[in-house]
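Support reply, case 0932

Customer input (verbatim):
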Amino acid sequence: MADSSSHLNWLIIRDHNAFLLKQRNIRKPFSTEPNNLTNLSSFRYSGLVHKKTLSVVPADKGISLIYKRPKQQNKPVKSTVKVTLKHRPRRTLKKMKNIINGNKYRRDLRQAALRRASAIMRSQRPATAKKGGKTGGAAAASGSTAAAAPKKAE
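Our regenerated output:
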């Protein structure tokens, strides 16, 4: 598939491949393929047909940006580059943006990559305690209504 164009490859695999998740009443099927930023089955985000692809995955206390080098496409081990970013969230997003823009690497995927990275970092944040008014107000109210309801005798 390396010598054929990405458009031709997409026309071949768009309806039938192992990574598709088709369901009824969904116009656009989902995709579980590697290097697909949005998990949607579309030509732009496909990680199978393009020579240059981006992927953002969680790492220990940070994120990893994975991209392909097009000149090394025949050597799978050398073709993927993994950059791990373990900084503060704003600095991480800025570094990601600089990597994508500085290498002139698929600028159309920049916003999707930043959104995915932001969501991953948000999920890695420790949960903070919610500041509430009364302690146990909602829990006590729901528990008291359940306790006050009479049980049916059988």
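We compared this against your earlier run and they match. Two observations from our side: The mean pLDDT is 84. The radius of gyration is 23 Å. Please reopen the case if you see a mismatch on your end.
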